[in-house]
Amino acid sequence: MSHVLAIDQGTSGTKAVVTDPGGRVLATAEEELRPVYLDGGGVEVDPHALLGSVLRAGRRAVAAAGVPVGAVALANQGETVLAWDRTTGAPRGPAIVWQDRRAETVCAARAASAPRVAELTGLVLDPYFSAPKMRWLREQRGPGGVVTTTDTWLVHRLCGAFVTDASTASRSLLLDLDRVEWSGELLDLFGLAGEELPEIVPSDRIVGTTAAFGGDVPVTGLIVDQQAALLAEACLEPGTAKCTYGTGAFLLAQLGAGAARSRQGLATSVAWRLRDATAYCADGQVYTAASAVRWLADLGLIGGAGELDAVAAPDSGGVLCVPALAGLAAPWWNPAATASLTGLTLSTGRGHVVRAVLEGIAAQVAALAALTGDDLGTPLTRLRADGGLTRSRVLMQAQADLAQRPIEVYPSPHATALGAAACARLALDPALSIVDAVGDWRPAATFEPAWPAERAAEHLARWHALASA
Asked: Per 3-state DSSP, what percentage of the chain is helix, strand, and coil (rounded to 5)?
């Protein structure tokens, strides 16, 4: 077995992690990215900055580890897209980030097809996913080149392959979820029938080699960031779930081999394709988590995320917050929703507002957790947590209280990268099992519910009324 360089290319930055054959982290490096937020709901990022961050972070991590690596794995944002030239690899303008809402008109023009889209893809017709943004890019940039998700472009720049993995393809609104193939019907629907699309590959497929990080190293372990974290946290059995608290909060629940469709707006996607078998997951998104905390900092209420627990009041003082600063995702799917803050009085202090924002994030995740059981018939047996905001004990306790189940905090801040690394180890060792590739771990902390069920239900009822107003 070899050391693995696993790269987590995210919205706000790129992280590179070098692991040993047992999955232990030897070195890490991070490079910051700054998406540009435009009027009208646009969110863009410079593709050259994306590639540069991948190369710099990867090379720094390899240098810090001081060992040669036997594979490079790449986890990606999932729904961020760009237009580029297949011959030169040059981008044809900024990449359109998953948060971008400018393709709402594309979805509105196809609203009558929403039930069929859901039937085929397991997703809702929303500009969050790739195809509407791809169509919008075509309308803006004209013909020529290809339009793909960023993983395809990054891999092409690393090794020349033209591929995407099954989990990323399942986030596009172009994949027949049951067949795990591009759908001609969906391509026609979005006006993309003439597009050259990448080959869909498993996450344990070696797709080429790269010399970008020293030597001639296999490129493999391609997977969406959230699915990678689901794998790292050993959510392998139906009913196990994790929530990643990053720029947004993303809850994924393992469904196993059945691609159950939601009736309440949850998305069903490919979790991964490994060892010639496809596993599926249900997921819901909270668009603003760390970005809501950044908003608090921008207002001067906190100096940064590290001050959350010190500033948060013991209770919210009656203040309720729906932190819909970029709209509401599942189960509301209301891109026009705006944030709400109610219950303010002359006695309200910044600590009450900070706690209300954290409880608002936790309330959205609790709603998603409840839906996975009620809607898909797979009640959650475990809820695990990862991401930078898990350092806030106030947020994690609020999550346990409102979800009314224990929250197990993943012990590493590198869940996404470790999931991609596990996929790479499976590619390098055909005899390795998925369970062994993931390995065993113990929670860094477990938060048990302190609120009685009645208090949680009353709080959530008031919060849902505000969110639905």
From this structure: 35, 25, 40
* pTM for the model: 0.91
CB 256 within 8 A of CB 226: no
69-83, 261-275, 326-340 — which is least confidently predicted?
326-340
- The backbone torsions φ and ψ at residue 128, rounded to the nearest 5 degrees and listed phi first, read -60, -35
Identify the DSSP state of 326.
Answer: T
Distance CA 464, CA 444 (A): 31
Separation of alpha carbons 407 and 3, rounded Å: 31
Q: How many CB atoms lie within 10 A of CB 116?
A: 14
Task: For 425-461, write each residue's pLDDT tens digit.
Answer: 999 999 999 999 999 899 999 999 999 999 999 999 9
The DSSP letter of residue 167 is H
Which amino acid, one-letter code, is at 1? M
C-alpha distances (whole Å) from 46 to each of 35, 40, 140, 173, 326 are: 8, 19, 17, 24, 21
The helix or strand, by DSSP H or E, that contains position 157, with its residue range, turns out to be helix 150-159
Phi and psi, residue 316, nearest 5°? -85, 0
Lookup result for tokens 């803006």: 140
> Which pLDDT score is estimated for 248?
86
**Partners of 281 in the beta sheet?**
254, 269
The dihedral sign for the CA sequence 301, 307, 313, 316: positive
Distance CA 296, CA 397 (A): 20
More confident residue, 326 or 361: 361
Q: Residue 257 has what DSSP assignment?
A: T
Q: How far apart are the first and last CA of the chain?
A: 55
Residue 335, pLDDT > 80, answer no
- Give mean pLDDT, residues 137-150: 95
- Residues 52, 58, 61, CA angle at the centre, nearest 5°? 135
Domains and CATH numbers, the chain: 4-232 (3.30.420.40), 286-409+445-467 (3.30.420.40)
Checking phi first, is residue 447 left (phi over 0); if not, alpha (psi -120 to 50) or beta?
Answer: beta
Pairing of strands 208-210, 199-201: unpaired
Please choose, from the candidates 170, 217, 209, 140, the residue with its C-alpha nearest in 3D space to the C-alpha of residue 76.
170
Q: What tokens were used for 444?
A: 């860094």
Residue identified by tokens 């209770």 is 315
Cis peptide before 331 (omega within 30 of 0): yes
Q: What local confidence, expressed as pLDDT, does residue 192 receive?
A: 98
Q: E strands along 197-236, which residues?
A: 199-201, 208-210, 217-224
Strand ranges (DSSP E) for 376-439?
Answer: 382-386, 407-409
Q: Say if strands 71-76 and 81-84 run parallel, antiparallel, or are unpaired.
A: unpaired
- 49 vs 377, more confident: 49
For residues 267 and 269, give the distance between their C-alpha atoms in angstroms, rounded to a whole number.
6
| DSSP-based three-state secondary structure for 197 | coil
